[in-house]
Amino acid sequence: MSSTEQGTSSAAPAEPTTAPESAAAPEVPESFYYVHGKDKVVHKVSAGALQHSALIHGMISNLGYTEEQAKANPFPFENIDGDILQMVVDWCNQHKGKPTPPEDTNLPKQKEKLFDLVLAVNYLEIKELLTYCCKQVAMMVKGKSPEEIREIWMIPTDAEDEAAEKEAKKRAGKEAAGETAAAAGDAK
Amino acid sequence: MPIALLKFPSDLLREVFKLCEPFELYKLSKCSKRAQRSKKLGGPKNWKIRFSSRRHVIICVDDSNYSFEQTKNPNEYFKIEYSRMCIEFPNGEAVDMFVYLLETFGIRTVESLGCDYGNFHDFSKIARFLIGRNMEIESFWIGAMKYDAFMPLMNQMNITKDFTSFFKFPSDFRLQLTKYPNKICIYYSFWYNIGQLLECTCVRIELLGSKMRNRDLNVFLKKWKKRGTFPNLRLLKVDGNNIDDRSPILGSKPPIKNVDNPTIRVSFGNEEIDDAIRVMKADGTVGWLNVKLGDVPTLKFLVANPTDTVVKDLAEDEDLEDDW
User: Fold this and answer.
1) Low-confidence ranges of chain B (pLDDT < 70)
2) Who's near B130: CB < 8 A, 6+ residues apart?
3) Is residue A144, in this structure, part of any structural domain at all?
4) Out of A129, B161, B262, B280, which residue is the most buried by the measure of CB atoms under 10 Å away?
């Protein structure tokens, strides 16, 4: 995502939800930015909290937005579900200006959202949270048998992989045939 | 709650695999062929492998060991106790297990390979495999066994750090390695003569049960004193009954020790030498020599390096202890 894309976002921002602030009072007035996910709900986040995300930090570091400009141009993350982005924003706020302790009790624990959370955190380049999430994924199979691992990590059997591969080839063949027929029709 | 792991992009898979223990990764590799291929994304972990018994193969990483132990009892499959996991070896063969682990974990270095009476059949297959791939073997040891069929294999192996032998080679045997490792430690070294010692390029040489005489050791040390010789050598240790008090080594008859100041200890790493005399090489390098007689006459020669060698006066330490 480039700064141009975010600057031209035409989505009318919903009323921002202010995430809980860190207990430590900032010494200087903080700047805030706005982000939204697939659900268009805009989150107001301080620049300090956003520093956890290498992606967003890189985007905002040279913008020099005023408060009004920032509010008018929320960063759109259309590939991230709203509830997932909320989790990420909460985590960034809780860890504003401080490193994550090894045993972090404030980390997201919703396992049913873990897959999407990992993808989002990876996309936003939040290194510490990514390590934690990946550790959660790794721990899911600790002490499990291969059959249990296959279920937990949804690993298809060889037969299922072969069937899927055949199906994909068949589909590709049909598409190629369709394109050839279309091209022949165009030529006529 | 299940999670579709293989749908993760490969960089994320790598992150997850980096945080998994080898036993979990091995079990993952058993889930499907695709899962096994994915495991190869395991990343830049410095996996190494050890083989010394036909009953188990060990993987080492980050100072931890994981032993894959053979069982034929299906009830025990994948049971983990401390750092051991029971499994069925592919085709019931240690060599197949070894190769499976090498390929699944993308291992490029053998930390230790041992050849002994009980594992010779498997060892020879593994050694041929490693030679074929020119894989690095950091340490290789030979047990006190009767067969000598390993000898042609040994000469072709790429041993880099350590060669230890408990094997009684024939008297006319000549050690022919593709390249000398950093260290050789040879028990029953009666066959290792001065000719071989003069050609040795090791950092550490330990010859136990040697037949070398004072004059051989004198020849070696005189050569060492010349500029440009044995540039790697840090330690020579030779023990054997042919070291005696009849002829000199570097001008002195054994025992050779520092009588003027008998409380000096010279050390680097785990090596130390007490009451040694100073020997100067033509280029200014300092060596420390001590020859003891007694039940097992021993020559010890340590080459100092200003970056890691400590010369300590033990008398000062004793004074300090007295003060306390």
Assistant:
1) 39-44, 317-324
2) B110, B113, B137, B157, B158
3) no
4) A129
What pLDDT sits at residue A63? 75
- E strands, A20-99, are 32-36, 42-46, 75-76
Q: Which domain holds residue A87?
A: 3-139
Angle at A27 between CA A25 and CA A30, to 5 degrees: 85
Domain that holds residue B20: 10-251
Q: What percent of chain B has pLDDT over 70?
A: 96
SS3 A122: helix
Q: Does residue B301 belong to any structural domain of this protein?
A: no
In a domain, B177, yes or no: yes
B32 and A142 in contact by Cβ < 8 A?
no
* Nearest CB to B2; choose among A122, A151, A157: A151
Interface test with B, best of A114, A122, A127, A155 (most B CBs within 10 A): A155
- Interface probe, candidates B1, B3, B86, B88, chain A, greatest A C-beta count within 10 A: B3
Mean pLDDT of A62-88: 86
Which single residue is written with the structure tokens 């069982």? B71
Please state the length of chain A: 188
The per-residue pLDDT for A106 is 58
| CATH of residue A131 | 3.30.710.10
Q: Is the domain of A170 the same as that of A82?
A: no
Instruction: Tell me whether residues B4 and A142 touch, CB distance under 8 A.
Output: no
Q: Does residue B316 sit within a domain?
A: no
Residues of A with CB under 8 A from a CB of B: 111-112, 114-115, 118-119, 122, 130-131, 134-135, 137-138, 140-146, 149-158, 161
How far does A67 lie from chain B, in Å, by closest CA?
A: 35
- Count of structural domains within chain B: 1
User: Whole-angstrom Cα distance, residue A81 to residue A38?
Assistant: 5
Using the beta-carbon criterion (under 8 Å), do B80 and A143 form an inter-chain contact?
yes
Do A33 and A65 contact (CB within 8 A), yes or no? yes
